[in-house]
Amino acid sequence: MEQANACHAVVAQMSAHGAARRRWVQAVPLLAAALWLRPVLASAGTAQSSRTLMGTRVDITVDGVAQPIAEAAMQAAWTEMTRLADMMSRYRLGNPVHALQLSAGLQPVPVPPEMMRVLTMGQAVSARSHGAFDMTVGALANWRFDHAEPVVPAAEEIARELPLVDYRDLRLDPQQQTAYLRRRGMRVDLGGIAKLPILQAGMAVLKAHGVAAAMINGGGDVLVSGHPQGHSGAGSREPDWRIGVRDPMAPDRLIGVLRVRGDVVVAASGDYERGFTVAGKRYHHILDPDTGMPEQRMRGVVLVARQVDAVNGMGPAMMVAGQAAGRRWLGAMPGVDALMVDAAGLRWMSAGMRERLGPCSGEPVCTT
Fold first, then answer.
1. Domains, the chain
2. In sequence order, what DSSP letters do the residues of 52-72 get, joined into one string?
3. Could you tell me the pTM of the whole model?
């Protein structure tokens, strides 16, 4: 249902090279790890905080600032991200998303500027992907991807709801700051488009508090700023943030490791973290707006860029449309690097991704 990357992240400590080298793995879907390999023990200026937000675990790591500043910055970031998540959740009664649903087919409703930005971004991705991404998949309300109680809607239910899925029937008026769903029963699901802007807002708060080096890892999406402050020794270069990329064909293993620094966003979509199998058939949460069913062409997509706007929503769209369409779209996405894995396990990487994605350096979790 949600065209999102949400999952339950875990944190593990790997000790393959002894206690002197601590390797923190923050597992996420295809972005299997916000894998930060520090060559020495974490410095006194490193602080971490984790919470559940937007249906997934979100981790904040800040480096190079005194503990009181780090704590205040992280608390302020949590406050802002929680405010925005509550605003744009489809599960909270009384918020603007709920108001938009209640007024569907009746009248436009005012929306906050932050939500207008997300809606506008979503509409742009829908147009660019010819509807492969569509926020109005929220009308397909009977899917349940809870592992404990999964639900596959009856064909009759999907057939009844599917005509309500059409991004062109979401009308936005930026001048009046209003949104309008043209037909009764329509709903929006912002799960696949709101998370990155919410994490981006949290990063902006950290920067406003004087944090220059930070990572925010949220269920398949990772934002980094600056670089870790540790050093490998005399003559060595400053360390990068390292992000392990999970193999969607073998989710407990890594394809490789991305090294990034500065302002970078890494966004991943995968088919296995929120899914289930019934009668031998695999179902996952990324639905094709044309059929109302999970698309089976792709297993995972990873996108790397300098700007959130460059990649937001495009991972789910590529999962639905397939590798050939994704490669065409990348031609109009300068500065974006991509890795795509199709249903057969065939990997395709852009030239930039081939340069970015390094080996796992002998990690036991590497794919051979």
1. 10-70+212-358 (3.10.520.10), 96-181 (1.10.3980.10)
2. EETTEEEEEEEESS-HHHHHH
3. 0.87
